[in-house]
TrEMBL record:
<dbReference type="Pfam" id="PF13516">
    <property type="entry name" value="LRR_6"/>
</dbReference>
<keyword id="KW-0343">GTPase activation</keyword>
<protein>
    <submittedName>
        <fullName>Uncharacterized protein</fullName>
    </submittedName>
</protein>
<dbReference type="GO" id="GO:0031267">
    <property type="term" value="F:small GTPase binding"/>
</dbReference>
<dbReference type="InterPro" id="IPR032675">
    <property type="entry name" value="LRR_dom_sf"/>
</dbReference>
<dbReference type="GO" id="GO:0048471">
    <property type="term" value="C:perinuclear region of cytoplasm"/>
</dbReference>
<dbReference type="InterPro" id="IPR001611">
    <property type="entry name" value="Leu-rich_rpt"/>
</dbReference>
<dbReference type="InterPro" id="IPR027038">
    <property type="entry name" value="RanGap"/>
</dbReference>
<dbReference type="GO" id="GO:0005096">
    <property type="term" value="F:GTPase activator activity"/>
</dbReference>
<dbReference type="GO" id="GO:0006913">
    <property type="term" value="P:nucleocytoplasmic transport"/>
</dbReference>
<dbReference type="GO" id="GO:0005829">
    <property type="term" value="C:cytosol"/>
</dbReference>
<keyword id="KW-0433">Leucine-rich repeat</keyword>
<dbReference type="GO" id="GO:0005634">
    <property type="term" value="C:nucleus"/>
</dbReference>
<keyword id="KW-0677">Repeat</keyword>
């Protein structure tokens, strides 16, 4: 018998939930192995109807965000408009990966993304702020209404550099 954190990915691949539109896995302690299992299932074509994915508080580190990036680059989750990654542990490296996903266009359908309390400091916060504030954001993410990075740890000097914050960014 597989541990619960790996079983969901296996079950998704077997086709048990073909009409799934919202997946709330918040507060499950999935960590790397659990999220890898799920993102691998998404890469294999599962969850194509998912519009909202909640992965809050699962100790997802930068390796987990890399798995998310890999899945999205295969065309996974084409209908996803909401993702919640709050209270994870991916820090600056994960923030940079998310910024790359934004600028490469793989998150183009998103309306909301929550990156609050993910242990990002200057490097990660700078990357996500620049990505979500890029001149091309209207083209890359035309439906974007909210990108939230609250309760991370940018320095005062970095925040002063940002100047005027666009209305879709909360920090």
């Amino acid at each position: 018998m597989l541990p619960p954190d790996l079983a969901l990915g296996r079950e998704m691949v077997s086709g048990v939930c073909p009409r799934l539109t919202k997946l709330d896995l918040s507060y499950n302690g999935l960590k790397f192995k659990g999220t890898k299992s799920i993102f691998d299932a998404f890469s294999r074509g599962c969850g194509t109807g998912i519009t909202a994915l909640d992965l809050r508080c699962n100790s997802i580190d930068a390796r987990g965000i890399q798995g998310f990036r890999s899945a999205m680059e295969t065309g996974a989750l084409p209908k996803m408009v909401h993702i919640d990654l709050r209270m994870n542990t991916f820090g600056d490296d994960g923030g940079k990966l998310i910024a790359h996903m934004v600028l490469s266009g793989v998150l183009g359908n998103l309306e909301t993304i929550r990156l609050d309390s993910c242990q990002m400091r200057d490097a990660g916060m700078s990357a996500v702020f620049k990505a979500f504030n890029a001149k091309s954001i209207g083209f890359l993410m035309p439906k974007l209404k909210l990108a939230s990075f609250k309760n991370n740890h940018p320095s005062t000097a970095l925040v002063k550099q940002w100047g005027i914050i666009p209305p879709h960014i909360m920090f």
